[in-house]
User: Fold this.
Amino acid sequence: MAAPPPLDAVVVGAGPNGLAAAIRLAEEGLRVRVYEANPTAGGAVRSLPLTRPGFVHDFGAAVFPLGLASPFFRRLPLEEHGLSWIHPEVPLAHPLDGGRAAFLHRSLPETASLLGRDGRAWHRLLGPIVRDWPKLEGEILGPLLHIPRHPLALARFGIPALLSARLLATRAFRDEPARALWAGIAAHSGLPFSAAGGSAFGLTLAALGHHVGWPIPKGGAQTLTNALVAHLLALGGDVVTGHRVERLSALPPSRAVLLDVVPKTVLKIAGEALPEGYRRALRRFRHGAGTFKVDWALRAPIPWANPDVGRAGTVHLGGTLDEIAASEDAMGSGRISSRPYVLLAQPSLFDPSRAPDGFHTAWAYCHVPNGASADMTAAIEAQVERFAPGFRDTILARHTAGPLELEAADANLVGGDVSGGANRLGQVLARPVLQPTPYRTPLDGVYLCSASTPPGGGVHGMAGAQAAETALRDRFR
Assistant:
């Protein structure tokens, strides 16, 4: 029997970036194999039976504005492989005390109309970004060290993006509903509210809420991963699960190796071969906020004090701008907040496949210092109960995971960091090193393609796709 042809490329890690890299290489007719340490592909984009049989829970990422907006994913025939997007009636709700709430609708004018005298300011801030997104996606979803193709559009985004989240809120808005709505979105960055550049993540997510919405995949996050794997297999690629790569030297021969891993793992599997200067740069790389997550199986929908919050797929809990800022600033100082900012999703309201008939699922998480061991279950559930009295009575079962448990389940979630590295301004520019093509490593034919490279965290596959483009230029053209 003839030996199989040699591999052209090997990818380590079957998260969305690793799969995107493999797909891009396989599109060129290259023989590609992906190695994944876990029993299933997906990294943080997986669905697991965490509570009781019949309840589908997303292990990590669950709401995908960047997944739908990704230029790379957008051109793939993922629907042919079973992916179907569900758009909740309202992308985002932000309840306030007393039964009030602020909402982000797909429609920018509708959102602005509900924000009273801050409506014009909301429209003025986000309207240009929504309009310019087709130009901005290439500027934002890649290395920042480049010659802009659309400098005016980038400037309209970049000037407010450089502000701290608190400064932008207090300059742009006068009333609490708009300030709180903005604060909940900006807090996705995991940065203190005083951090320069802290508004960039919030502007991107808010604009995408209006541009493409905040959709969920029918059947759970695993369906996105399964579609990517199926497309890779259709192109002739190969995925090997349950195979942990301990050393680069243990990989089969190939012309290129792409690593969907964080710098800590690069040092572990390739450190001795790397120049000392590059090793120092990787050791300086810092991870961001940790995450404490709770998944619930519920016997009824969450009983929100404001019933309209039940129309939203994602809910931000934490109250006012000042409360959310205090929570995130405490985390940035290494402290645990007793009233944390909480991100919550309630997918079964819009996707009945997530739970048995008459039952529901929900998940929530809060930020904690990286690697913290505190149990935040009671604090998270208290914040839900604050805006949904009677919530605790709906809980049938729960599953909790702190930073160390998350990292044990996915080595890329170092200390519970779900973004692949801190989003502070200096590290956004040097991710993980300061160079125009940060995907290259000093090792010949070895590339980094994880969320620790531009454009950073989020499920979009762009780091993998762009690393693959670099490998194609260097090794195959």
